[in-house]
Amino acid sequence: KDGKRIPDCDVIVIGAGLTGMYQAYLLDKEGMSVLGVEAGEEVGGTWYWNRYPGCRLDTESYAYGYFALTGILPDWKWSENFAGQPEMRRYANAAADAMDIRRLFKFQTRVTAAHYLDGQDMWQVTLNGDELVTCRHLISATGPLSATRMPNIKGVETFEGESFHSSRWPTKADGTPDCMDFTGKRVGIIGTGATGVQIIPIAAETARELHVFQRTPNWCTPLGNSPLSDEQMALIRKRHTTILEYVKTTDTAFPYHRDRRKAVEVPKEERDAFFETLYDQPGYGIWLSGFRDLLTNAESNKFLADFVADKIRQRVKDPAVAEKLIPTDHPFGSKRVPMESNYYEAYNKDTVHLVDIRESPIQEVTPTGIRTADRSFDLDVIIYATGFDAVTGSLDRIDIRGKDGRKLKEVWADGPTTFLGLQARGFPNFFTLVGPHNGSSFCNVGVCGALQAEWVTRMLVYMEAKGLTYSEPTQEAEDKWTEAIYRDFSTTLMADVNAWWVKSVTKPDGTVQKRALVYVGGGAEYRKQCERVAYSGYKGFELA
Ligand code: NA7
């Protein structure tokens, strides 16, 4: 009637990770036609791609396991306090069965382009480079840490042994991970982020020699994993709704509230006793439930950093190695704190060697190993635990064009601009779950991603009920949200740090500007803002 085409489906969801699966399920339940697109062979996202030895949750399983908390998997039994990747993969698959969502997804299919069709209120999405599908709404759930980043080192392709990125671990014909046992092998690993810190102690158990090529040490603290007994599981099941309500109230949706005191106001003895308790507790408590000025007051931060540095000195026998493992470039917790299990003890083995590549940079990868400025290392295996093009990287790799053919990658070249972290002006009907500037990228993704999916579902149901086919943030709403993100972030100790949640933008005059990719206002506040928008009839969005 209005000269507009009818799209092939209501919604395309990109990604069958935990968030994408849930989004597809919710919209399907509302009677919308949903097409899910997933590059992998099965569901699970992060838990499908990352299958390296030692890969596991740093979040308490029960607090991450949204599907179990909401009753989608009421009988799920976690075997450990922090579940390993094989268990997480089973969990994702069990959730897919329970929600019956596999039928909605095309697997082994990549979205290569997505173009907004001006005047049509719809997107034209290209699958695997040649198949075209149109949809009213496009929802990305591509994950903040899915676009792998290989280092730009000369000769990487010349290596004749086995080499791979940590998130593309080799598999056997039956799909199970290969190369889990390094017996008799000389192994090199580049990268000491959360991934490297999980792999290193496991690889150290079997490798003939393990060389860790470290550019920057991280502040790592004990994970303290343990099995979950039937009694503990029974209690978790019984209290599932209370747990869910609790994690919705904390800043990061992890089961931790910050202590109300400031470290600078507490006497040293009491402070250290508190740090000791936190260090001995399992999980993120030392980062997320410590003194409330940890990330805003440099002096307070140094108290904890000094405490953890001493722990490293106590655990690593060689004092020179211990000093190299202590960060000097960033405050504690200003970058992701890797949770470790015997990480520091690994360096006490004669077969494990720390190579400081700030002191002696890698020159090239050769057919037989790695050559640094002062020596060569003969290796059978090289593991690149070099991280990801975080948060926006997975979107940058898709040719996304909004109104007037404007490319998202170019619009966001100086840092993302969004409203609620969920939509960008110029890109109508396009939602970014677990994307930049929303609660999820600095949050317990198992919970935050799901809450966003619920919010977007409500908005699309509202639009459908009102006969609305177009949504786009106003310039004013986007400017206000984006300015607040950058302003709030700049008041924290995270502002100048080289962490994956910061984008470094080099300006034409050569200066580098740090742009936050995350929302630091806290999960509860984020949801309050989203609720306010929903209750106001989506004020801040132009709906038509
Ligand atoms: P991270 O945390 O981004 O860590 C990547 C590591 O790789 C880090 O130690 C980097 O050193 C190092 N790196 C990256 N590029 C290079 C080059 N070119 N040369 C040497 N070293 C390099 O990624 P992870 O996979 O460990 O963890 C990502 C998240 O996944 C984690 O936070 C969890 O939430 C799950 P740098 O610090 O840049 O000097």
Automatic annotation (TrEMBL):
Any GO molecular function: monooxygenase activity
Keyword NADP: yes
Pfam families, per database record: Pyr_redox_2
Protein name from the UniProt record: NAD(P)-binding protein
Swiss-Prot/TrEMBL cofactor(s): FAD
Keywords: FAD, Flavoprotein, Monooxygenase, NADP, Oxidoreductase
Entry similarity comment: Belongs to the FAD-binding monooxygenase family.
Naturally occurring in which organism (per UniProt): Paracoccus lichenicola
Source lineage: Bacteria, Pseudomonadati, Pseudomonadota, Alphaproteobacteria, Rhodobacterales
Ranges where the FAD/NAD(P)-binding domain occurs: 10-239
Presence of keyword Metal-binding: no
Top-rank taxon: Bacteria
